[in-house]
Amino acid sequence: MVTISDIAAALGVTPSTVSRALSGSPRVKEETRLAVEQMAAEMGYERNVVASNLRKGKSDIVGIIVPRIHRNFFSNVIGGAESILEAAGYCVLICQTHERLEAEVKALRTLRNNQVAGVLMSHAIGARDGKHILDALGSHIPLVQFDRVFSDLPGAKVVSDNFEGAYAATKHLIEQGYRHIGTLAGYMNSEAYAARLEGWRQALRDGGLPEGEVYYDTIVRETGYEAGLKSIDAGCDALYSAGDFSALGAVEAARSRGLRIPEDFGIVGTANETFTSLMTPSMSSLALNPFEMGRQAAQAFLEGADGVRVVPMELKVRESSCRNHSDNQIPNNPCLK
Amino acid sequence: MVTISDIAAALGVTPSTVSRALSGSPRVKEETRLAVEQMAAEMGYERNVVASNLRKGKSDIVGIIVPRIHRNFFSNVIGGAESILEAAGYCVLICQTHERLEAEVKALRTLRNNQVAGVLMSHAIGARDGKHILDALGSHIPLVQFDRVFSDLPGAKVVSDNFEGAYAATKHLIEQGYRHIGTLAGYMNSEAYAARLEGWRQALRDGGLPEGEVYYDTIVRETGYEAGLKSIDAGCDALYSAGDFSALGAVEAARSRGLRIPEDFGIVGTANETFTSLMTPSMSSLALNPFEMGRQAAQAFLEGADGVRVVPMELKVRESSCRNHSDNQIPNNPCLK
DNA sequence: CCGGATAATACAAACGTTTGTACAACTTTG
DNA sequence: CAAAGTTGTACAAACGTTTGTATTATCCGG
Asked: What is the pLDDT of residue A325?
């Protein structure tokens, strides 16, 4: 391992000069800088970032904490954040919590102990507030929350326009002639889900429809299936689901009751998971914009600016909610017009 | 920030004693250890791992490099590796290369400069050999390769039983009565794809069928579509695809030619991506066992043992290749029996 | 009660970098 | 030409830990 002292010795200068030369300080002569750079290249020097981090008290690592990396949404957020952070010279450390609070706390501690430059995170479902986050991370490491945010925590936040999105999805169902629209609402300790619920509610009101059925804590296929059955029993003819997996469960529930989709039962999910466009019938979904959210989160970190950034959602209309034009070619998204 | 010196001062001992006490050295008295531990807890001490790493010359970070984290396969490998590594006290740093060689080299350098304890990786398609890996990582950091491996590199390797798997998949197609079976082979600079090609070839030979058509460099939906069309023109009635996305493209190609699946055209993909079980018709796929591969890779790292570990694959028979019993309930996998 | 072993702790040097301050060489100004 | 300013380097002290060696305390047998 070649160090700055080796370079210094080889050139007859001191390590401090080498350090400054390599970091582009204006305090070294251009001539010296060139000599140092050449010698460094020649000797195959690479900066020991661990030592550098110790001295500087922080590293060039940005931690990203997500519930599960295999979720399309999160892996795309990570991709978006990476694209910005790597260009800015940071490297990215990814942790997943599997929705477990202890894992989240452990990840935060690990990141803090590694003196990361910042943390971008989407918290695990199941926490009431962000107290544990503040406790585990401390207050001197910049925190950016995305998607699932605790608004009482300091730091920047990036969220989807959940209210508007759910509103648009529900309005679309109404326009398609559905009149009894329930919702698979997810967990209410997440502000994202809460906002979607409100968007759905408002769309019903604005559409002149009565309050619809709400099914809470529906987030996976199984719970979506059960809630789907219940909604059918309750007389619903459509569902806006705050998640795609639960929507998939609801599709299966409708099928098991012999209902045709979209003729008898309409469904719009949320998140635009890959499978939604590949299943038959293809499933309409309220797309988040994860890549953009990741970019925004990274930007917020780089700029050090607090405040909330809102990323718009986009409704992808597919077969599962297209009752009026079900004979049309779906690729052209006939209902959208 | 409270340091071991603070604890030492508070107890009237030296930092070295505190350090040894906290790391469980037998050189400190039980009584002293307890006092130190209590004081550390009281003062809210947390070890500065950066300093620790600098001194020890290595960190407790294990780097995992994959082409893309959003691929089901890779995110599951990561999950498997994590489950072992975290239990062993390591933390995991994930890098993705987007199949770009420069990104791979950069990731390796970053990991080396951060003095990671080890690297688990699956290289990007496109490299001839692993020279760049050795150059970028150096030879003193343990390397474990999984799935895509360069066998000329030192270190442990974990691979799927690609030959046996492809053999089984192809044999299955033959048993289903397909007689002209081509293959979407992927990239031949990956040993995994090469082994699958050989498995397919051997199964055809053992089944008494003539050589089939090989379509190289098919890895995504688009290239799968094109190769699918060509295979149909060439008279194929079935394809074993070394990837699921290309298989999906082939399904679409068959459909566009008006062929029924599986009656007129049979397809088996590889990787068991989520969408394969959700599409209609559901797609048979040769499942890798990514979680287990991740576990094995992590184990190989922990044990420091070189050598090759082989993880078996499992054929998931679904509708797209079930010509003989296409009226049966698929969930029971009738063809498997 | 002393010499020699053993146990427990103290001392101090590293790990490789960064950075404030001191110093030297040189240039400018009055 | 001396004083003052400017520029480029050297010096040295950190950052918080770990760890080899030295030192002190404790215990045992003779």
From this structure: 60
A31 touches strand D (CB under 7 A): yes
Laid out side by side, the sheet with B143-146 consists of B91-96, B61-66, B118-121, B143-146, B156-160, B307-311
| Block residue for tokens 């004081």 | B39
Task: Indicate if the pLDDT at residue A310 is higher than 60.
Answer: yes
CA atoms of A240 and B45, how far apart (whole Å): 49
Q: Which residues contact A89 (CB under 8 A, 6 or more apart)?
A: A60
Note whether A262 and A294 are within 8 A (CB): no
Q: What is the mean pLDDT of residues A268-294?
A: 91
Instruction: Note whether A94 contacts B69, CB cutoff 8 Å.
Output: yes
3-state secondary structure of B124: coil
User: Residue B118: pLDDT band by 50, 70, 90 thresholds?
Assistant: very high
pLDDT at residue B330 greater than cutoff 80: no
Residue carrying structure tokens 């204006």 = A26
Question: Shortest CA distance to B23 belongs to which of B2, B37, B11?
Answer: B37
β-strand B118-121 against A314-316: which pairing, if any? unpaired
Interface of B with A in 50-79 (CB under 8 A): 50-51, 53-54, 59, 61, 69-70, 72, 75-76, 78-79
pTM for the full predicted model:
0.83
A156-160: strand order across its sheet:
A91-96, A61-66, A118-121, A143-146, A156-160, A307-311
Rounded distance between C-alpha atoms, residue A127 and residue B137, angstroms = 40
Residue B153 is classified by DSSP as S
Residue A129 CA to chain centroid, in angstroms? 18
A266, β-bridge pairs:
A238
Minimal CA separation from A113 to chain B, in Å: 6
Q: Is the dihedral of CA A87, A90, A94, A100 positive or negative?
A: negative
B135 in contact with chain A, both atoms CB, cutoff 8 A: no
Distance CA(A217)–CA(A79), nearest Å, equals: 28
Both structure tokens of B54: 């600098």
Q: Give the pLDDT band (50/70/90) at residue A226.
A: very high
pLDDT digits (tens, 9 = 90+) for B182-241: 999 999 988 889 999 999 999 999 999 999 999 999 999 899 999 999 999 999 999 999
